[in-house]
Design a protein that fits this description.
Length: 237
């Protein structure tokens, strides 16, 4: 087993006044040649946006873009004609493909919105742009890793153009759970959204990240109540 750990405190940070953002991997003005990606996982941004503020219309191409709201309401508009509000419990994915423009802003005027924006390098380029969104039932996350992203349109969750699987789960203190990879050639990036747990010989705290490869099964031990995002991805573009 090989691994790399990214403590929450080691992440890149940008405070734009209206936007407070932490970057697990190099992004915008944060550059670290040792923190470019984990396989095809290119961006993992932990964003907090002030009331009524947001990102103006901007373009993307040939990237799978996944948004996971943690608090508040995020309004999305894009050049495909989609207008949607996503909130905690929703998962949004957009295949930028040949090119798409979109905007994101805090729908609320009285509270901040917090969300993860994740970029995955696709295994197919110049595809037709596509948008998808699902809403999770809170009980579906309890005491299990629920699949939220996969490469198969017929499978659970949202599909993307990559041999990747994402899972999300919430666990009680003292519980133990085993997770097995779908593809043994992939690596697993573990992002602890909240709590404190042990996995792969490491103790993780809130917003720590751990990338692990050359292993296909992982046992988690919850030291406190914990919420965990798992991102299984190919290690080569």
């Amino acid at each position: 087993m090989k691994k790399v750990i990214h403590r929450a405190s080691s992440r890149g940070h940008a405070d734009h006044g209206w936007l407070n953002s932490y970057h697990t991997f190099s992004f915008a003005n944060y550059y670290d040649p040792n923190r470019m990606n984990f396989g095809v996982l290119r961006v993992l941004n932990d964003d907090e946006v002030d009331p009524g503020m947001g990102f103006g219309t901007h373009p993307h191409n040939n990237m799978e873009i996944i948004s996971i709201p943690l608090e508040g309401d995020l309004e999305h508009k894009d050049s495909m004609g989609n207008t949607a509000v996503i909130k905690q419990g929703d998962i949004q994915a957009m295949s930028a493909g040949t090119g798409v423009s979109h905007s994101e802003r805090n729908k609320n005027r009285d509270k901040k919105v917090k969300f993860l924006q994740i970029w995955v390098v696709p295994n197919k380029t110049n595809v037709a742009p596509r948008y998808d969104q699902i809403t999770l039932q809170p009980e579906s996350l309890k005491d299990q890793f629920l699949q939220i992203i996969s490469p198969d349109a017929e499978d659970e969750g949202i599909w993307i153009h990559q041999n990747a699987w994402f899972h999300l789960g919430e666990f009680k203190e003292g519980s133990r759970v085993i997770h097995t990879l779908n593809d043994t050639e992939n690596g697993l990036y573990i992002f602890l959204l909240d709590g404190n747990c042990k996995v792969a010989g490491e103790t993780l705290f809130k917003r720590d990240g751990l990338g692990v490869w050359e292993a296909d099964q992982f046992q988690f031990e919850m030291i406190t109540d914990s919420k965990i995002l798992l991102m299984e991805v190919p290690l080569a573009n």
